[in-house]
Amino acid sequence: MSLMKINIGCGSYPIKGYINIDKLEKFSKFNYDAWELPYEDNSVDEIYAGHVVEHLPYDKIQDTLKEWNRVLSPQGTVTVVIPDMVKAIEWFKSGKFTFDEVQGIFYGYWKSLDWEEGHHLFVCDTIIQGWMQDVFSNVEILNHPVPQMTSEVEWQSIIQGKKGA
Fold first, then answer.
1. Straight-line distance from the first to the last Cα atom of the chain, in angstroms, rounded to the nearest whole number
2. Which of 20, 84, 112, 137 has most Cβ atoms within 10 angstroms of its Cβ?
3. Among positive and negative, which fits the CA dihedral 85, 53, 44, 165?
4. Which residues are paired to 48 by β-bridges?
5. Which residue has better confidence, 165 or 41?
6. Are the beta carbons of 63 and 55 closer than 8 angstroms?
7. Are 144 and 153 in contact (CB under 8 A)?
C-alpha cells in the first residue's frame, strides 16, 4: 500500500514523493485552500506545512488544523514549520539578521501576491504548539531539522504532532 504524503503551501519548493499543494496555480496543479482539502477521512499519512500557518487568515487557523486532522490516517503525522519571531529577534540582536530581514519575517516577503496579507505576529513555537495540542496528540517542538526543510533551522520552529482523537 502506497503512503499518501502532502506538502501544503509548497510554493516554489515541491518535495519529491509528495502531492504538492498550493493555492496559486503558478506553483502547483493542485490548488486547494489549506482548510478545505479534497481527501477522504483518514486517507493521508503525512502532512508537511512549511511556512503556511503564518499566512492563513486568523479565523481559519483552527478550521485548518481540524481539517488536517480529519484527513490524517490513524498513525498520521503533521509537521508545521514557522518563522519564529522570538528567534528572529535573537538573530537580529546578534547581527545575523538585518532589520529588513526581521521585518520580512514579521510581515511577510510576499505581500505582492494577491492572496497574501503578510504574516501574523503571533508566530512563535509555543503558541502554535498550544493550538495544535487542541487538535492533535503527541505535539512537540523539535530541536532538529526535518528532511523536507530547505533552509536554516535556527530562525524557524518545527512543531510535529500525530492524529488526534
1. 24
2. 84
3. positive
4. 7, 79
5. 41
6. no
7. yes
Cα distance between residue 72 and residue 44, in whole Å: 5
- Strand residues in the chain grouped as ranges (E): 5-8, 19-21, 44-50, 72-83, 137-142, 156-162
- Report yes or no: 69 and 163 within 8 Å, Cβ to Cβ: yes
Give CA 3 to chain center in angstroms: 20
| Residue 17: strand, helix, or coil | coil
Rounded to two decimals, the pTM is 0.86
Cell reading at 92: 537580529
From the CB of residue 100, how many other CB atoms can be counted at a distance below 10 Å? 9
Contact present, 78 and 161 (Cβ < 8 Å): yes
**Strand ranges (DSSP E) for 69-136?**
72-83
Cell of 99: 532589520
- Domain 5-162's class? alpha beta
Joined together, the cell numbers standing for residue 115 give 492572496
Phi, psi of 26 (to 5 degrees): -70, -15
Q: How confident is the model at residue 112 (pLDDT cuts 50, 70, 90)?
A: very low
Angle formed at CA 121 by CA 120 and CA 127, multiple of 5 degrees: 95
Cell of 57: 487568515
Distances in Å between the Cα of 78 and the Cα atoms of 39, 61, 70, 90 are: 15, 14, 11, 27
